[in-house]
Amino acid sequence: MSFPTKPILPITLILFALIIGCDRAGSLITPDEELIETLIIGPYKVDCVGAFEQECYLEFNEESQEWHFFYEGIQGFDFEPGYIYTLKVRLEDRGTEIQDVGRYAYHLVEVLSKEEASVDERPPRKP
Questions:
Q1: Are residues 83 and 50 in contact, defined by beta-carbon separation less than 8 angstroms?
Q2: Fewer CB within 10 Å: N-end or C-end of the chain?
Q3: How far is Cα of residue 18 from the mean position of the Cα atoms in its chain?
Q4: DSSP string covering 46-66, please?
Q5: Domains of the chain: which residue ranges?
Q6: Which residues contact 33 (CB under 8 A, 6 or more apart)?
Q7: What distance in Å separates the CA atoms of residue 37 and residue 61, rounded to the nearest whole number?
Q8: Which residues contact 86 (CB under 8 A, 6 or more apart)?
Q9: pLDDT tens per residue, range 29-88
């Protein structure tokens, strides 16, 4: 009895291509690319509740012209109350498999500005 070898090679190649493609399917950026954002962080932290009770930064949303809770930490950022910071950050895609954390981890690239601001003004002044 002879074994049909002709269909095995194309089927194997198709399956191999699908396996490689599935590895990157959930990622928006490739390892060679970096997603960079600019954040404006307020002069004090506030109590907030995300997956648990914590202290959050305030982030200024330029589109809505309002301050919002920023639930994530920023690795490499040394926060000092009393200043409004403009930061350049790199986003690292965590994927969607991890529950109770945001999609991205934030890493400080550069502090673009650090302006003195009152910690007593609630909400903070617009940057």
A1: no
A2: N
A3: 28
A4: EEEESSSEEEEEEEEETTTTE
A5: 29-116
A6: none
A7: 12
A8: 38, 39, 40, 41, 111, 112, 113, 114, 127
A9: 445 467 999 999 999 999 998 778 999 999 999 999 999 999 999 999 999 999 999 999
User: In the block, which residue shows the tokens 């269909």?
Assistant: 7
30-46 pLDDT, tens digit each: 454 679 999 999 999 99
Count of residues for the chain?
A: 127
* Encoded tokens for 72: 């994530």
Dist CA 105 CA 76 (whole Å): 11
Tokens standing for residue 116? 């003195």
Pairing mode of beta strands 35-41, 46-49: unpaired
CA proximity to 105, closest of 4, 29, 52: 29
* Average pLDDT value for residue range 87-108: 85
Nearest to 70 by CA among 34, 39, 38: 39
Which residue in 39, 38, 37, 42 sits closest to 55, CA to CA? Answer: 42
Please report, rounded to a whole number, the percentage of residues in the chain having pLDDT higher than 70: 70
| Amino acid of residue 21 | G
Q: Which two tokens stand for residue 85?
A: 């910071």
